[in-house]
């Protein structure tokens, strides 16, 4: 990454008026209404996708290391069934849930820590549970930046081993990052389901 890096708070505040990301929309189409089931939004950022999950009836625990997240979430999801947790994805031990959403956040877990964070994410999924995640690929211009994680297509397949992948979009495009510099993005948007009879009904 080049140039001065904006803070996550500035990034997240700038996201408040955008539409819900396609990954979250597609995840909700697959998973259906929450009916009070538990969900995690890991690296929830602005809370725009958290709000969509809550609106669909999910009981959401939203995790982010940005300390400004809870106040934003309170405004966005006033009175909704949501618990805000300020913390590092490497430290937070999530409970078991029927849905995990994580848009554009897991790539910001350093590669040295990615494996155990991923193992936790997988373990948190109840049987029949839904997973929607973004991962960065090796042709991304940020590839090699310390503190980030990248996975080739074969690595994505390994991460998803034992899960039923129902939707995998590999995207490459040139577009500005939040810092304003045009870069090449290489991203995988993956929706998968843990096999088995659905657990976690309210
Ligand atoms: C690119 S933003 C994505 C936010 C939101 N999910 C979205 O789609 O707009 C990355 C988010 O991950 C959070 N984040 C980055 N590294 C983190 C970590 N190790 N633990 C917890 N949150 C982290 C940042 O604070 C930021 O809100």
What would you give as the CATH superfamily?
Vaccinia Virus protein VP39
CATH class: Alpha Beta
Give the distinct bound molecules: S-adenosylmethionine
Helix content: 25-40%
Bulk shape: globular
Helical/strand content category: alpha/beta
Per CATH, the architecture is 3-Layer(aba) Sandwich
The total domain count is 1
The CATH topology annotation reads as Rossmann fold
Mean of residue pLDDT?
A: 95
- What kind of assembly state do the chains in view correspond to? single chain
The number of strands is 7
**Major sheet summary line:** 7 strands, mixed
The share of residues in extended strands comes to 25-35%
Poorly predicted runs of 5 or more residues = none
Q: State the end-to-end CA separation.
A: 44 Å
What is the chain-wise order of helices and strands? HHEHEHEEHEHEE
Read across the widest sheet, the strand sequence of neighbours is: 3-2-1-4-5-7-6
Enzyme class: transferase
GO biological process, one term: methylation
Organism: Nocardioides renjunii
InterPro entries: Methyltransf_25, SAM-dependent_MTases_sf
Q: What attributes characterize this protein structure?
A:
202 residues; alpha/beta; Rossmann fold; seven-stranded mixed sheet; 6 helices; binds S-adenosylmethionine; EC 2.1.-.-; transferase; Methyltransf_25; Class I SAM-dependent methyltransferase
